[in-house]
């Protein structure tokens, strides 16, 4: 057994207590073997004075949208997608996806995110990046019917199913997949039903956008006399493995249905604020036992992929939404960003315990904004930033050591992404 020991730090346990312990990791299985005092390994990471926490889980993003960061801001969802995003995405080439994904993955490794769920195009190129960079990911081809004829819309869903089957288990098992129809309003009912049936036949989840804006909810209610989540359940999109992004506008019946079926919701607070989509009822979801993770959404509606920002936004917005300062308390926000997201994605990760995946972020606490140390969970929720991450470990391998990313050439990744982004906008004629 080749081992890695993370020594001298304090660890954040899944019950949100902090204790002094070393972490011993089996690099071959990628699992945590043991927590304890004075553990030695073949390789070692110094965590003296640091906090070792589970690697963060970004449970909903469109990673290559990093190329569109700052391209179009300050618009509502529908206008933003139709006027600014979709026209540029039509000019995307596979090389762009690879360059944008590498940039996004680099940003996530630097900020302690070890797993992301991605809905986008040309996902085999994103898979190549994940393979090289060493993170974990759930990938899916986003399929859409809007603007396509019947045959093209069906082919898009079939592509999503084929890619999910093809890539599941890639990168030594670090890649899992889902079938990803874009949303309840941009994919036809027949194709949503087909996506669900095919996904479950392939043994993978369905992932989609739902209940993001009132503009999406109202037409479904008017046309069908049903709430969107009830309709999604009837189409087969709410089984225990399935999960959707946003869930901003949900009523009590829908929340109850999500809890009963075990359907996961990925809360994307920054995107919901930036596109003025609304405030998700996160405390009510948690109280009802709905599995909840956190996502950045794409970098064009955030505009970064730092999960620390997201978990602070989740805590802040959750209080505002509930009109209650005790809502979405610090431990709940930190849990959503770690174990919550891992549970939504069906991964044995997000917790520091023997037998769990060795996906870890080591936080350097030696900073003015993290002093004094009254409560480290409070610091993670309200004061820490992605740039406080010192080491990142995924699947037992060190991806970043002392703030140096070992698996990607940082300067080359940034240079290439900037060049591809310029070329993309030029080709799109904007
Ligand atoms: N194959 C599809 C691509 C879908 S990928 C996922 C899509 O979701 C878009 N997207 C990004 N953020 C959001 C959001 O908040 N809500 C809905 N869609 C979004 C993103 O720009 C991308 O077009 C096609 O032919 O267009
Ligand atoms: Zn999205």
Q: Can you walk me through this structure?
A:
- The protein has 430 residues and is an alpha/beta fold.
- The protein has two domains: 3-54 and 350-405, Urease, subunit C, domain 1 (Roll); 56-344, Metal-dependent hydrolases (TIM Barrel, Alpha-Beta Barrel), CATH 3.20.20.
- It contains 14 helices and 20 strands.
- It has helices at residues 77-89, 94-110, 123-133, 150-167, 189-202, 214-224, 228-234, 252-261, 269-274, 282-288, 307-322, 330-344, 376-382, 410-428, and strands spanning 3-7, 10-12, 18-20, 22-26, 31-36, 43-46, 51-54, 56-61, 113-120, 136-143, 175-177, 180-181, 207-210, 243-246, 264-267, 292-294, 360-363, 389-394, 397-401, 404-405.
- The protein has a seven-stranded mixed sheet with strand order 3-2-7-17-18-19-20, covered by helices on one side. Strands 8, 9, 10, 11 and 12 form a five-stranded parallel sheet that branches. A four-stranded mixed sheet has the order 5-4-1-6, with no helix packed on it.
- Helix 3 links the parallel strand 9 and strand 10 (136-143).
- Helix 2 (94-110) packs parallel to helix 3 (123-133), helix 4 packs parallel to helix 5 and helix 12 (330-344) packs across helix 13.
- The model has no long low-confidence stretch (mean pLDDT 98).
- The site of the ligand N[C@@H](CCSC[C@H]1O[C@@H](n2cnc3c(=O)[nH]cnc32)[C@H](O)[C@@H]1O)C(=O)O has 20 residues, from helix 1, strand 9 and strand 10.
